Amino acid sequence: MYNIIQCILFAILLSSLGIEASDPVEIDLNDYRWQNRILLIYSEHSSDSVYSEQISHFSEHQTGFDERDLLVISIFAHEPSRFGEKEIDKNSTKQIAGRYFSDDPAFSFILIGKDGGVKLRSDELVSTQDLFGLIDSMPMRRNEMRGRN
Prior knowledge:
Layout: H1 2-16, E1 37-43, H2 49-59, H3 62-67, E2 70-76, E3 82-83, E4 86-87, H4 90-100, E5 107-112, E6 118-122, H5 128-136, H6 139-148
Parallel strand pairs: 1-2
Antiparallel strand pairs: 1-5, 2-3, 3-4, 5-6
């Protein structure tokens, strides 16, 4: 009973501060097939230095991410996973981690193409230049660039 009261008081506090508490979202990567490329970044915690450095590299290139229809999903072993500003529910996290990160690495980076196939897998930092170069060399991306010109 005490926990329920705490939750209600916490929700009221967040509301009074203008902060909305939202439920974790369910993510199915198939929903993005043929629409987006997806970066899955796995780390133990969001505070891990390699993860933080990887995200820092990307934060300066949001326009390039948008042009390439690229979404980032952060999967964490010991805290809620994130899709942008949204928390991902535990079942979705478990499904994604089980499918793509079964060997439980400390850090891993996976690029999934619009066709749903894995295009790049790395356990090291990936530069934005290398990532964009790889994507821009793909036939589907070349067609997109021609279509926009």
